[in-house]
Write a structure and sequence with these properties.
The chain has 70 residues and is an all-alpha fold. 71% of the residues lie in helices and 0% in strands. The protein has one domain.
Length: 70
């Protein structure tokens, strides 16, 4: 059971890294952003990636808590 949680966490961590890299690659502001780029709203694919990142991180934290618990 412990190895299952570890494998799930590893897979989720890789997916989270890829989703975050897709977010920074999709924006034209670069890695650190610009002042005018931080005040615009997310639309379309950016919004999906943003929400997917939040969901994946919540699942990752939940699995990490389960890993410590069991």
């Amino acid at each position: 059971m412990d190895s299952l949680f570890t494998i799930l966490m590893l897979v989720l961590a890789i997916i989270i890294i890829l989703v975050i890299l897709l977010q920074t690659r999709g924006s034209s502001a670069g890695l650190f952003g610009q002042a005018d780029g931080s005040y615009r709203s997310r639309r379309g694919f950016e919004k999906i990636l943003f929400r997917l990142t939040i969901v994946l991180v919540i699942i990752f934290v939940f699995i990490a808590v389960l890993n410590v618990r069991f």
